[in-house]
Design a protein that fits this description.
The chain is mainly α and 147 residues long. It has five helices and no strands.
Length: 147
Protein backbone atom coordinates (compact mmCIF):
# COMPACT_ATOMS: atom_id res chain seq x y z
CA UNK A 1 0.00 0.00 0.00
CA UNK A 2 2.79 2.43 0.93
CA UNK A 3 4.58 1.54 -2.28
CA UNK A 4 1.57 2.54 -4.38
CA UNK A 5 1.21 5.85 -2.57
CA UNK A 6 4.90 6.63 -3.06
CA UNK A 7 4.73 5.56 -6.73
CA UNK A 8 1.71 7.77 -7.45
CA UNK A 9 3.24 10.69 -5.55
CA UNK A 10 6.44 10.46 -7.60
CA UNK A 11 4.41 10.24 -10.83
CA UNK A 12 2.38 13.28 -9.80
CA UNK A 13 5.52 15.31 -9.04
CA UNK A 14 7.11 14.34 -12.36
CA UNK A 15 3.96 15.26 -14.27
CA UNK A 16 3.79 18.61 -12.47
CA UNK A 17 7.45 19.27 -13.31
CA UNK A 18 6.91 18.50 -16.99
CA UNK A 19 3.89 20.79 -17.21
CA UNK A 20 5.80 23.62 -15.49
CA UNK A 21 8.79 23.19 -17.80
CA UNK A 22 6.60 23.40 -20.89
CA UNK A 23 4.90 26.56 -19.61
CA UNK A 24 8.22 28.46 -19.58
CA UNK A 25 8.59 28.05 -23.33
CA UNK A 26 5.01 29.01 -24.17
CA UNK A 27 4.75 32.22 -26.18
CA UNK A 28 4.03 35.25 -24.00
CA UNK A 29 1.80 38.15 -24.93
CA UNK A 30 3.71 41.26 -25.97
CA UNK A 31 1.02 43.56 -24.59
CA UNK A 32 -0.21 42.56 -21.17
CA UNK A 33 -3.63 40.95 -21.21
CA UNK A 34 -4.59 43.30 -18.38
CA UNK A 35 -4.17 46.30 -20.69
CA UNK A 36 -7.87 46.72 -21.35
CA UNK A 37 -10.41 49.45 -20.66
CA UNK A 38 -13.70 48.05 -19.42
CA UNK A 39 -15.76 51.11 -20.26
CA UNK A 40 -15.27 54.48 -21.91
CA UNK A 41 -16.99 57.53 -20.43
CA UNK A 42 -18.30 60.88 -21.63
CA UNK A 43 -17.70 64.23 -19.97
CA UNK A 44 -21.12 64.43 -18.34
CA UNK A 45 -20.74 61.00 -16.79
CA UNK A 46 -17.25 61.82 -15.47
CA UNK A 47 -18.36 65.14 -13.98
CA UNK A 48 -20.98 63.27 -11.94
CA UNK A 49 -18.33 61.10 -10.29
CA UNK A 50 -16.47 61.68 -7.06
CA UNK A 51 -12.79 62.49 -7.14
CA UNK A 52 -11.84 59.07 -5.74
CA UNK A 53 -13.63 57.32 -8.61
CA UNK A 54 -11.98 59.66 -11.10
CA UNK A 55 -8.57 58.93 -9.61
CA UNK A 56 -9.10 55.18 -10.11
CA UNK A 57 -10.15 55.71 -13.74
CA UNK A 58 -7.17 57.99 -14.30
CA UNK A 59 -4.75 55.41 -12.90
CA UNK A 60 -6.36 52.59 -14.88
CA UNK A 61 -5.92 54.54 -18.12
CA UNK A 62 -2.29 55.35 -17.32
CA UNK A 63 -1.60 51.65 -16.75
CA UNK A 64 -3.19 50.67 -20.05
CA UNK A 65 -1.29 53.34 -21.96
CA UNK A 66 2.05 52.37 -20.41
CA UNK A 67 1.38 48.71 -21.20
CA UNK A 68 0.35 49.47 -24.79
CA UNK A 69 2.07 52.50 -26.35
CA UNK A 70 5.67 51.20 -26.41
CA UNK A 71 4.55 48.26 -28.52
CA UNK A 72 2.26 49.79 -31.16
CA UNK A 73 4.80 49.12 -33.92
CA UNK A 74 4.33 45.42 -33.11
CA UNK A 75 0.73 45.16 -31.90
CA UNK A 76 -2.08 47.27 -30.50
CA UNK A 77 -4.15 44.59 -28.80
CA UNK A 78 -3.38 42.41 -25.79
CA UNK A 79 -2.81 38.72 -26.39
CA UNK A 80 -0.59 38.99 -29.49
CA UNK A 81 2.52 36.84 -29.01
CA UNK A 82 5.98 36.90 -30.54
CA UNK A 83 5.07 33.76 -32.47
CA UNK A 84 2.00 35.49 -33.93
CA UNK A 85 4.29 38.19 -35.31
CA UNK A 86 6.94 35.81 -36.64
CA UNK A 87 9.43 36.72 -33.91
CA UNK A 88 11.43 33.66 -32.84
CA UNK A 89 10.26 32.37 -29.46
CA UNK A 90 13.81 31.65 -28.32
CA UNK A 91 15.40 32.05 -24.90
CA UNK A 92 16.92 35.48 -25.69
CA UNK A 93 13.64 36.96 -26.91
CA UNK A 94 11.68 35.50 -23.99
CA UNK A 95 14.28 36.93 -21.60
CA UNK A 96 14.16 40.44 -23.08
CA UNK A 97 10.34 40.37 -23.06
CA UNK A 98 10.34 39.28 -19.41
CA UNK A 99 12.83 42.03 -18.51
CA UNK A 100 10.64 44.59 -20.26
CA UNK A 101 7.58 43.36 -18.36
CA UNK A 102 9.47 43.63 -15.05
CA UNK A 103 10.64 47.16 -15.89
CA UNK A 104 7.12 48.19 -16.84
CA UNK A 105 5.73 46.79 -13.59
CA UNK A 106 8.38 48.60 -11.57
CA UNK A 107 7.70 51.88 -13.39
CA UNK A 108 3.96 51.52 -12.87
CA UNK A 109 4.38 50.80 -9.16
CA UNK A 110 6.26 54.07 -8.69
CA UNK A 111 3.94 56.01 -10.99
CA UNK A 112 0.76 54.75 -9.31
CA UNK A 113 2.17 55.56 -5.86
CA UNK A 114 2.92 59.08 -7.09
CA UNK A 115 -0.54 59.46 -8.65
CA UNK A 116 -2.30 58.29 -5.51
CA UNK A 117 -0.34 60.80 -3.45
CA UNK A 118 -0.46 63.85 -5.73
CA UNK A 119 -3.50 63.66 -8.01
CA UNK A 120 -6.05 64.10 -5.19
CA UNK A 121 -4.81 67.70 -5.07
CA UNK A 122 -5.63 68.25 -8.74
CA UNK A 123 -8.56 70.23 -10.01
CA UNK A 124 -11.50 67.93 -10.78
CA UNK A 125 -12.05 69.52 -14.21
CA UNK A 126 -8.40 68.84 -15.11
CA UNK A 127 -8.77 65.24 -13.95
CA UNK A 128 -11.88 64.79 -16.12
CA UNK A 129 -10.08 66.35 -19.11
CA UNK A 130 -7.08 64.06 -18.59
CA UNK A 131 -9.28 60.95 -18.46
CA UNK A 132 -11.06 62.00 -21.65
CA UNK A 133 -7.70 62.65 -23.33
CA UNK A 134 -6.38 59.22 -22.32
CA UNK A 135 -9.58 57.54 -23.49
CA UNK A 136 -9.40 59.30 -26.86
CA UNK A 137 -5.79 58.19 -27.19
CA UNK A 138 -6.79 54.61 -26.45
CA UNK A 139 -9.68 54.78 -28.92
CA UNK A 140 -7.30 56.04 -31.61
CA UNK A 141 -5.22 52.90 -31.17
CA UNK A 142 -8.11 50.96 -32.67
CA UNK A 143 -7.88 53.21 -35.74
CA UNK A 144 -4.08 52.73 -35.86
CA UNK A 145 -4.55 49.24 -37.32
CA UNK A 146 -6.52 50.68 -40.25
CA UNK A 147 -3.65 52.93 -41.40
Amino acid sequence: MKGKIIFFSVCFLLATGIVSAQDKNAPKSIISTSALIKKYHDQKELQGMKKGELLELYIERIKVLVKTLPYIALATKPGVTMTDLGIPNDADNRKILAEQAESTTSFLDVTVAFQRRMVPYSDTDNLVAAILFYENTLKSLHEFNDM
